[in-house]
Structures are given as C-alpha cells and as structure tokens.
Amino acid sequence: MSYEELKERVFKANMGLVESGLVVLTWGNASGVDRKAGVMAIKPSGVDYEKLKPADIVVVSLDTGNVVDGTGKPSSDTPTHLHLYRTYSQLGGIIHTHSTYATAFAQANRPIPCYGTTHADSFYGDIPITRPLTSAEIRGDYELNTGKVIEECFQTGAIDVTAVPGVLVASHAPFAWGPSPEKALENAIVLEQVALMAILTQQLNPAVQPVPKVLLDKHYLRKHGPGAYYGQK
After folding, report:
1. Staple partner for 145: which of 69, 108, 137, 174, CB 3.0–4.6 Å?
2. Are 41 and 13 in contact (CB under 8 A)?
3. Which of 163, 68, 73, 149 is nearest to 106 (CA)?
4. How far, in Å, CA of 169 to CA of 172, rounded?
5. Which of 34, 56, 121, 217 is labelled catalytic?
C-alpha cells in the first residue's frame, strides 16, 4: 500500500509549523491519520526541519504502533498521538509544539482563559490545563501517560474535543488537533495567538474577566453550530 499522499500532507503540516513560527530547532511535530488504512504518519524523531523530506515521514500502525513505512524512528511523542487517535475517532491530525506563549501558560500551570471573540471563534471556552503527571507516570510510560492525562482532563471537565481542539499539558507544552492535519495546524496557530493575546490582556487589565457566555456562544456557534452562517457555503 502507498502512503505517499498521507506522508506529503503530514510533511506540509510539519513545515507549516516552521513557517508559522511555532517551532524552533526540532521542538515540535505534526501527525495525520488514515483510518481506512489503519495508520498514522508522523515526523521522525530529532530530524532537523531544514533536512526533512516527505519520504522521511514515518508511518506506523494505529493498532500496534509498529513502523509500516519509512526507515527512520518515529517521534518520541508517537505514543501520545496514538492514544489520542485511538480515544477520539473525530481526530484526523495532531500538532505538538513548544510555542512560546502557550508553553508559558503550561509552565505556569494555568489554562488560557477565553477573554474575547478571537478566542471564541475557534475554542468554545478556556483552553484547559491537565493535572501534573505523577512521579510514577513520568518514570513509567511517560509519553503514553501524557496522552492518558489529556484524555482524563477532557473527561473530568466534560469538554468536547471538537469544540475545544487543544490542551496544555502541565509543565510541558500545548497539543492541538483537528479533523485533518491542515486543520490541526490552523488550530495550533490560533492557540498560540490567543495565548499571546491573553497574556497582553492580563497585563493591561489584571482584573479582566472571561468573555460573557452569550458572546462566546454567538461567536463560536456562528462558525461551528448547526445554524452556522460564517464564511462561504
């Protein structure tokens, strides 16, 4: 079976991280899934973006995690991506970065509050922060447990992964996702921008409150609700 189209899309999503300024060095990765083929494609571990080619993208089995195409070693974050794909069938692409402003919130162990309509257009409420991993979780299957703590965060908070397509892993960094690698990249870009806006907003007005729910509803639902009317049909 040929995985060239999936590898090309995932390659472009990875390069989009560089073009949008979301990664420096090798601090990030993008993946995409082909559920019919039962595979996930992801950036190889530690490969410089300047040297990355579509052929370098590694394809692994969704079921086993074994490499089915490619000669490199897949990203060390592969178990996190696999757990999220296995848990949420709605996901078609996942992005992980250490982008500056979102990572600052993660390191501060704080969610990103929804202060305005720019945030509300893409995320239906605060971007949550996971609980810290325990010592046993860190010493054990760390990357897999990172995926599990993200799942726990959304389950405990009764948060819809399609309505809030991103999360901050405590003391670590953000993950974002979408129905495709392209949409996941877009959501990762938005997540970083609203993190920057939130920091500036808090500096300008330390007493600022989250956007009123009526305005949150209006902006999110006009783009994503059953009666959405934003954009062209």
Report:
1. 137
2. no
3. 149
4. 5
5. 121
> Does a structural domain hold residue 230?
no
| Total domains, the chain | 1
pLDDT in tens, 42-67: 999 988 898 999 999 999 999 999 99
CATH number at residue 199: 3.40.225.10
Looking at the domain assignment, is residue 60 inside a domain? yes
Quick: pLDDT tens for 142-159: 999 999 999 999 999 999
- Tell me how far apart the alpha carbons of residues 105 and 97 are, in angstroms, rounded to a whole number: 13
Check if 230 is active-site: yes
Contact 66, 75 (CB under 8 A): no
Domain that holds residue 109: 4-224
Catalytic residue status for 160: no
Residue 25 included in any domain: yes
Write out the two tokens for 154: 């959304």
